[in-house]
Automatic annotation (TrEMBL):
InterPro entries given in the database record: DNA_pol_a/d/e_bsu, DNA_pol_alpha_bsu, OB_DPOA2
Lineage of producing organism: Eukaryota, Metazoa, Spiralia, Gnathifera, Rotifera
Keywords: DNA replication, Nucleus
Protein name: DNA polymerase alpha subunit B
Domain of life: Eukaryota
Bias (Acidic residues): 1-16
Composition bias, Polar residues: 58-83
Keyword Nucleus: yes
Length: 527
């Protein structure tokens, strides 16, 4: 009987509560299934679940009205958190200035401690200003990647036609057009399913011009050796089999990029290179101050090159920051660097929380007078110091490549092989899709993250073990990081590494690897 006592408004309210809510229209059907399958094929296995879960967005913590501190966004919980040594542990370290790795060329002169510092000529070839990102449509991205693939097709054709044999008029066959003869195909290595690349999931994707973007599964069981990763562009010679696969008999990597023009060093060069993080626990500057002090006290050091991150998004101190903004922390670092009055070049990182995390990363936007001692480059950058050409990157491409590369019967050193991939693919970051920590704008990367010629030095900062390697005519240096993650309480783990580079003057062309090797003196030292 109580139900009959309800008035019309109550009945309407009850019906609204019981009726299903209006659903927003979502894309469905074949197009959605195709798009989902394409996304899965380009997604590593460990990312698959995290992609489908709703991420925790950064939010602005509410501060009391009487609080004088400045609110700071809290980072996503998905961002890994690492700890850095505290001041006490850093000051008590036992391996100060220890030489970790050293290369001494056969004719490298000893550095003159009484030599006066001279200002070298420095040129930066890098991205100059900010650009719009996240405006790139999937069609524009596909067009950029296709253009890159077509350029490599032309390189392979030139290489084939330059050989003095019966293939003077060689042609590339379209992928997916099965023929009975042995034919050459050029395409990009992709994974045909979710997860990491393996020998059973290798697929070759062709260009729009030659193959209409068709794909074919690649059988590499007959190859004596190979080294492959997603995004790599290769030429494969083989035959089609009855099961629709392409049975590879020979794998050819792209022709190497040409060396730099003839270069002679008129004066001795001395510079130091270090990579972040630079802050200890609680934002202490002791590690950065120690590095700057060593650079100033060494009379031969002309330039200091610093690679990000400067305000590291993975730092536990930065993630818990409450009393100041990220920009204020960065400005304090800049003021500390300027106070030592040394010529400094700053390269950003995608891990800099105060800067746009996009690759390639544009330089820090700071108004500096023309006679300033501080220069700002992009990530990556091509740096020329008195003719010595250095390719510099703060992105950990070596670690990203090592986790995605598959290989068989390789006799070369792994680090040398990974760096040679960069030279063969003409790119600072050839991995497609990129690591989940790197957001690539392909249109900008195609122009500003491209290697057009072999540098003299290739300098990177990786979490892998520091090294000095000579690859062809290039000296590759992984200098490590200035402040290491504090994974234990050991005092020996309290300090990271940095590099000191000395190049003796010479009238010979250093573009040949032997001359460069002989005149270089490189040290990777503990802080």
């Amino acid at each position: 009987m109580e139900d009959f006592d309800m008035d019309a408004d109550d009945v309407m309210e009850q019906e609204n509560e019981q009726s299903p809510k209006k659903k927003t229209l979502q894309p469905s059907g074949i197009a959605l299934e195709a798009l989902t399958g394409l996304l899965d094929s380009y997604t590593p296995g460990e990312m698959k679940n995290s992609r489908r879960s709703i991420p925790t967005l950064p939010f602005q913590q509410q501060q009391p009205s009487h609080a004088s501190s400045i609110s700071t966004p809290v980072r996503s919980k998905n961002t890994p958190q690492v700890s850095t040594p505290n001041v006490v542990t850093f000051q008590a370290r036992l391996n100060k200035a220890e030489i970790v790795i050293e290369h001494i060329g056969s004719v490298a002169k000893a550095k003159d401690s009484t030599e006066r510092k001279t200002s070298p000529s420095i040129q930066l070839r890098s991205l100059l200003k900010p650009y719009k990102y996240m405006y790139q449509t999937i069609y524009k991205r596909a067009d950029v990647l296709n253009k890159q693939l077509e350029e490599f097709e032309d390189l392979f054709l030139t290489m084939l036609n330059s050989k003095e044999n019966d293939k003077a008029n060689a042609v590339l066959y379209p992928i997916g057009n099965a023929v009975q003869d042995e034919v050459p195909l050029v395409g990009r290595i992709v994974c045909d399913s979710a997860g990491q690349l393996n020998a059973q999931s290798i697929t070759l994707e062709g260009s729009s011009r030659t193959s209409k973007c068709n794909r074919v599964r690649l059988d590499v069981s007959s190859l004596s050796s190979y080294s492959l990763f997603p995004g790599q562009i290769v030429m494969v010679s083989g035959i089609y089999t009855n099961d629709g696969c392409f049975h590879a008999k020979q794998l050819t990597t792209p022709p190497p990029i040409p060396p730099t023009t003839e270069t002679k060093i008129a004066n001795d060069l001395n510079f130091m290179v270090a990579a972040g993080p630079f802050l200890l626990a609680n934002g202490n500057f002791s590690a950065l101050e120690e590095l700057l002090r060593r650079a100033v006290e060494d009379p031969s050091v002309q330039t200091l090159v610093l690679l990000g991150p400067f305000v590291d998004e993975r730092s536990s101190y930065v993630q818990k920051l409450q009393d100041k903004t990220y920009e204020q922390v960065f400005n304090e670092i800049i003021e500390k660097i300027k106070s030592y009055q040394i010529k400094t070049i700053l390269i950003p990182s995608v891990r800099d929380i105060h800067h746009d995390s996009i690759y390639p990363t544009y330089p820090f936007s700071i108004n500096e007078p023309k006679d300033s001692t501080t220069l700002y480059g992009s990530e990556p950058s091509l740096l020329t110091i008195d003719g010595l050409q250095c390719a510099v990157t703060s992105t950990d491409i070596l670690c990203h490549l090592s986790s995605e590369e598959i290989s068989s019967n390789q006799t070369t050193d792994r680090m040398c092989r990974l760096i040679r991939h960069l030279f063969q693919q003409h790119s600072f970051y050839p991995l497609i899709p990129p690591n989940e920590s790197v957001s690539v704008e392909y249109e900008q990367a195609f122009e500003h993250a491209k290697l057009t010629s072999l540098p003299h030095l290739f300098i990177t900062s990786s979490d892998l073990r520091p090294f000095i390697k000579f690859i062809d005519s290039v000296c590759a240096i992984n200098l490590g990081r200035l402040v290491k993650n504090q994974d234990s309480t050991m005092i020996n783990n309290a300090s990271g590494t940095y590099a000191k580079i000395h190049l003796s003057k010479t009238t010979d062309d250093i573009s040949t690897g032997t001359i460069l090797n002989d005149h270089l003196h490189i040290q990777i030292l503990r802080l």
